[in-house]
Write a structure and sequence with these properties.
The protein is α/β, with parallel strands linked by helices and 274 residues long. The protein is 38% helix and 23% strand. The chain has a seven-stranded parallel beta sheet with strand order 6-5-4-9-12-14-15, with helices on both faces. The protein has a three-stranded antiparallel beta sheet with strand order 1-3-2. Helix 9 packs parallel to helix 10.
Length: 274
């Protein structure tokens, strides 16, 4: 057996007899992943009837071959990662007009003298740039793009949360920033995300999702800014259920299932069309 097969020999391993069965298992794994966009190790253990260690080795091997991308606790398809986990520069160039309208509409909800807590993301940058009509704002953020885009006349102060720097996202994430979030109070959290579904809002990175959940926890109200491309997506890491949100600002009416869930949760939906 070659090292690439990644399986220890033993009576319970279905691939112990040769190389064909691992190939079939890999094909089933990839088809499952393609159908769903993402999968957890636990799901694949049940599907393939092998051990967790075997699944992890399979995922590592398939990632090395460029067929999937490993995440914490599972994997996502490469095309899904490109859609919801691209670098900040690329995301700034996607859905620009929609994000500009969303940012302006969300800025209209902000009052002078508020303390805002803002997370990372391209739509948050468009929101921050639209704050020119406000005055004496205090901003707390881990988004390192914001100081350059917030209109100077709008701000009283900007506080940057510490932590590890993630260059692809241009944010700081980590224990230092999380501890700082827990020690403050904000009037409004304005939050960007990777997905908005009936189960809540979500992101692709577990640490960033936990950090963002902490921001929501210290704010009196939460405004989510998300264009329609985020509808129906449940990314890897949950941030918060819809019940924790007060407002969604978007560029199109949500689909019926999501609209019904938002209504049940009491979330105000503001649609800023063309």
């Amino acid at each position: 057996m070659s090292q690439d097969d990644g399986h220890a020999t033993g009576p319970t391993e279905p691939d112990a007899a040769g190389g064909a069965l691992p190939a079939l298992r890999h094909s089933r794994l990839l088809q499952y992943l393609q159908d769903r966009g993402q999968a957890t190790v636990a799901e694949l253990v049940t599907l393939l009837d092998v051990s967790r260690d075997t699944v992890r080795r399979d995922l590592d091997l398939l990632e090395r071959r460029g067929l999937l991308v490993r995440t914490h606790g599972g994997a996502v398809t490469k095309d899904r990662l490109v859609r919801v986990d691209t670098t900040m520069g690329l995301r700034m160039d996607e859905h620009v007009e929609a994000k500009r309208r969303i940012g302006q509409a969300a800025s209209d909800l902000i009052r002078d003298d508020e303390t805002l807590i803002l997370n990372g993301g391209s739509t948050i940058c468009f929101f921050a740039a639209a704050l020119g009509g406000r005055r004496s704002l205090t901003i707390v953020t881990n988004n390192l793009r914001l100081p350059a885009v917030v209109p100077e006349g709008s701000i009283q102060s900007i506080h940057i949360l510490g932590g590890s720097y993630w260059p692809n996202y241009q944010v700081t994430i980590g224990a230092i920033g999380f501890a700082a979030v827990a020690g403050i109070h904000a009037d409004t959290a304005v939050i960007g995300c990777s997905g908005v579904s009936a189960s809540g809002i979500s992101m692709t990175k577990l640490d960033e999702a936990a950090h963002t959940a902490g921001m929501i926890g210290v704010a009196s109200r939460t405004i989510v800014v998300a264009d329609q491309s985020k509808f129906g997506i449940t990314a890897f890491a949950n941030i918060a259920p819809l019940d924790d949100l007060q407002c969604l600002v978007t560029d199109a009416e949500p689909p019926p299932e999501l609209a019904a869930a938002l209504e049940r949760a009491g979330v105000q939906v503001i649609v800023c069309g063309e």
